[in-house]
Write a structure and sequence with these properties.
four-stranded mixed sheet; alpha/beta; 122 residues; 2,3-Dihydroxybiphenyl 1,2-Dioxygenase, domain 1; 20% helix
Length: 122
């Protein structure tokens, strides 16, 4: 049902560097680029992540209560993605830990303050 998730940014070049490296954990490839937007997709996931300069010309902003969930294959993958996000300039919104039995997760925000959760169920 969902083809992609679109996130606003005020700096397309910085967002491209951030996501190019972060999304390598999912073997995602940059598959479309225009002067206003970039889209990444992975072969085994039908939903992509895109960043764009807002069409209305106003500053990009993150929504309160919005979050994108990323599925990890292991606890170590959660740790690696979280560490990568912080190394790329993202900020901590919850260190990796077991949130409830069988759910290991970490939370971070990208350069434009969009919130992500990385989850391993197992």
């Amino acid at each position: 049902m969902i083809s992609n998730v679109l996130l606003g940014t005020d700096d397309l070049a910085k967002a491209e560097r951030f996501y190019n490296e972060l999304l390598t954990h999912f073997e995602a490839q940059l598959c479309q680029r225009t002067d206003r937007a970039i889209l990444w997709k992975a072969k085994e996931f039908p939903v992509g992540i895109a960043v764009c300069i807002p069409h209305n010309g106003k500053a990009a902003s993150s929504g309160n209560g919005n979050m994108i969930g990323l599925k990890a294959d292991s606890r170590s993958m959660v740790d690696e993605i979280y560490a990568t996000a912080l190394a790329l300039g993202g900020t901590c919104d919850g260190k990796p830990s077991e949130r409830k039995q069988g759910v290991y997760a970490a939370y971070f925000r990208d350069l434009d303050k969009h919130k992500f959760g990385v989850f391993y169920l197992g």
